[in-house]
Design a protein that fits this description.
By secondary structure, the protein is mostly helical. It has four helices and no strands.
């Protein structure tokens, strides 16, 4: 069967007017990617700030100031009070401080428990 005066069969392009609304099906994906990227950026910035704060805290060193009288006693090797056991305990604590083992999580927790229990 032949059909005359008919254009070729097959897909035909749709003619759209300038008033037709175009639907952007990728917009939700793009917006989701943008939101996720922003959240990730904020998360990384917060993490960097936290790491910086932790680094500063590790660098922090406690300091004490000795009075002139304390310096004079220290230079003579004298003490106004304290037994040999006290001096040994102080020397032990000093060494733990210098080794970085004085303020462990376990010791801090134990001290906090004692404070809370009123010991």
């Amino acid at each position: 069967m032949e059909i005359h005066n008919q254009p070729a069969q097959g897909p035909r392009s749709v003619k759209r007017s300038s008033e037709d609304v175009r639907i952007d099906i990728t917009k939700p994906n793009r917006e989701g990617i943008r939101r996720t990227t922003e959240e990730l950026t904020r998360s990384r910035e917060l993490e960097a700030k936290e790491l910086e704060l932790q680094a500063r805290q590790r660098e922090h060193r406690d300091q004490i100031e000795l009075s002139d009288e304390a310096r004079a006693l220290a230079s003579r090797g004298e003490s106004t009070d304290g037994t040999d056991a006290d001096r040994a305990r102080v020397a032990d604590l000093r060494q733990q401080y210098l080794d970085g083992t004085l303020n462990t999580d376990e010791r801090v927790s134990r001290a906090a428990a004692r404070i809370l229990d009123g010991e």
